[in-house]
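call fold(seq) -> tokens
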Amino acid sequence: MGIDLHTHSTASDGTDTPAELVRKATAAGLSAIALTDHDTDLGLAEARATGQDLGLTVIPGVELAASAPPGCGAMHLLGLWLPGEPVHLRRTLDWLGSARQERNREMAQRLADLGTGLTYEEVEAQARGVVGRPHFAQVLLRLRAVTSLEEAFRRYLGRWGKAYVPKAKLTPKKAIQALLADGATPVLAHPCLLGLSVAELEPLARELRSYGLTAMEVYYSEHSPRQMDQYAALCGRLGLLPSGGSDYHGRVKPGISLGRGRGNLHVPESVLDRLREHRVQQGLWV
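ret:
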């Protein structure tokens, strides 16, 4: 059996409700998943309740965007084993939520000015949780302003798109400290998206470790076998634990399957065993 420690639901920008996500994970034969929606913990209670009913381990988590050094791609940090009421992280999530809403409204205005016919009210109706760019893409597709979700990102919503607005981000140190303050385990997500060689990544990972980073995603949908070997070796050199997940979003990422990524992903249960053991040694709940 395998696990998947990086998934998304309708609480942020996925297309499956938390309950649907857990049911699909059970049907896929997974033994555990982590729900790691962007900047929110709103789906965790539903996911954990469904997991208890079905006998599937659900690890409560979150995904935070952090500012990367100049010349790097996106840096995201996962927090695994988020408590039911993350007192310290709540202030951070509230700030991120307010900044996200301002960003979304500005993107909606830019899209309206470009003649797409999109309104923010339509995007809010499309989303059943936190509004994200995939919801904009789905509305644009419905309005026939684009012919595919990929075109929506390429023309309008991606980094070089006409309506793109940069996202408010935490510094890596603040993001990691916010997670640690509530007893969550910080994980560097999808290191491949930073666009760095392993030699370039190593000093950055050392810096993140000095802030309290615990683990790095070795197993990921976009990682080649060679990259997985390189990231595993880097974890060994730095004393970081390996983690892994598909980054499943449902229909908005149709090529990514829950627990299987693009078809060849397998995150072994031993990854979860090591993360749990580390937390037990720290006196943290599992």
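The chain has a mean pLDDT of 96.
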